[in-house]
């Protein structure tokens, strides 16, 4: 089969090598600050290095050894033990979620604090949409005591889907407790056929903060694959130039890689970045088209290293699921799908990533569906070229009843699962609905019909009992 597929390439081999040299120069001459005494001592002891004022510099041979030892692909399972994903070998996979503080409802798009019921509903919605392969932490639960918000959110996370989980825990002291609860509910160690991928990030510029690297150690020692991803504000925490941001963020990523491989050689890890810009006039961060280019460059560097890549989802832009958000989501989804990305786990947020919207889940699923059709290309062979059929029909006639039409008309072109293909007359007859209204109604219907996992009741009962027992002094 001769499959014609589009590809996006940004850097040539010489440019990749130059970028790598720049990154090594930062790591060998500037270094990174490691705020965890435990991790700093481990690096000094195992690597034979010396730090000064918590700053440690990594020789190029140490970095190269870490690149060599990291797995080239990562097996990820669902909660029931089936091998769903092989990150690093497959196409870009998508997920929903972000640690939002506010929920934007699908009725009138007003904001409210993020509640436990919102966590439940969003996980179920993301789980029923087929193109979302992982479900990330969707918010920080704020209608319970702050000290146990991560516990109740993570309980709703595991109870409402069987898909793999990307886990973010805002309170670093609760991270081991969440993993303990998962093991209690699941009945086996989380590292056995892992379905949980914890997400960690350093503090730019060049700080390996204690909370991040200590949690990395916990996750790696439990046999979990991890995501190590950083976040820039170009012009503030990183240089304003794309090349400068790429260099600094790549140096942080490779420092995280060295730490992971020093904790345990062969520890599975995905590396990636969220390269946003900082507007000094409004004091806000935002995605620029060159943010997407930096992400593509990062994906190409990861391909060069042979390390699975975690990309941005284009999230955070917009005031809900609006024209602003659609611009960024389309650009990001298509660019990363046509390059070398492996996982984009954070779809659905808006208003500077402070809120999350179920309508964004649904509309972005449409974007992914169409982008995948473009990514998959088409077959260019004798049958699909239909030369004989064209000869048979000849000039001035119709192909409506020809074999290629009859065989392919059901899936030969894109049909939206949300927006009807109205003629002008049908649209007027339907009351001239705005597209946003159609999206809201579809989202409401989907949320009302989202399936509930069989284990939901059992998990909630056991999980709440675990939390009460563990935190009785707080509750």
Kindly describe this structure.
By secondary structure, the protein is an alpha/beta fold. It folds into 2 domains: 310 residues, Alpha-Beta Barrel (TIM Barrel); 28 residues, no CATH class. Helix 5 runs antiparallel to helix 17. It is globular.
Sequence-ordered SSE layout with sheet pairings:
Elements: E1 3-4, H1 13-30, E2 32-34, H2 37-47, E3 55-56, H3 60-69, E4 74-77, E5 83-87, E6 93-96, E7 102-104, E8 111-113, H4 116-128, E9 132-136, H5 149-159, E10 165-167, H6 175-186, E11 196-200, E12 207-208, H7 210-221, E13 226-234, H8 242-263, E14 269-279, E15 284-286, H9 289-305, H10 323-337, E16 343-347, E17 349-350, E18 355-356, H11 358-376, E19 378-379, H12 382-385, H13 387-393, H14 403-408, H15 424-429, H16 435-449, H17 456-470
Parallel strand pairs: 2-12, 6-9, 6-16, 7-18, 9-10, 10-11, 11-13, 13-14
Antiparallel strand pairs: 1-19, 2-3, 4-5, 7-8, 14-15, 17-18
Helix pairs in contact: 1-8, 3-8, 4-5, 5-6, 5-17, 7-8, 8-9, 9-10, 10-11, 11-16
> What is the overall silhouette?
globular
* CATH homologous superfamily caption of the largest domain: Trimethylamine methyltransferase-like
Distance between the termini: 62 Å
CATH architectural name of the largest domain = Alpha-Beta Barrel
Keywords:
single chain; 475 residues; alpha/beta; TIM Barrel; four-stranded mixed β-sheet; 19 strands; 45% helix
Summarize it.
With 475 residues, this protein is of the alpha/beta class. The protein has helices at residues 13-30, 37-47, 60-69, 116-128, 149-159, 175-186, 210-221, 242-263, 289-305, 323-337, 358-376, 382-385, 387-393, 403-408, 424-429, 435-449, 456-470; strands at 3-4, 32-34, 55-56, 74-77, 83-87, 93-96, 102-104, 111-113, 132-136, 165-167, 196-200, 207-208, 226-234, 269-279, 284-286, 343-347, 349-350, 355-356, 378-379.
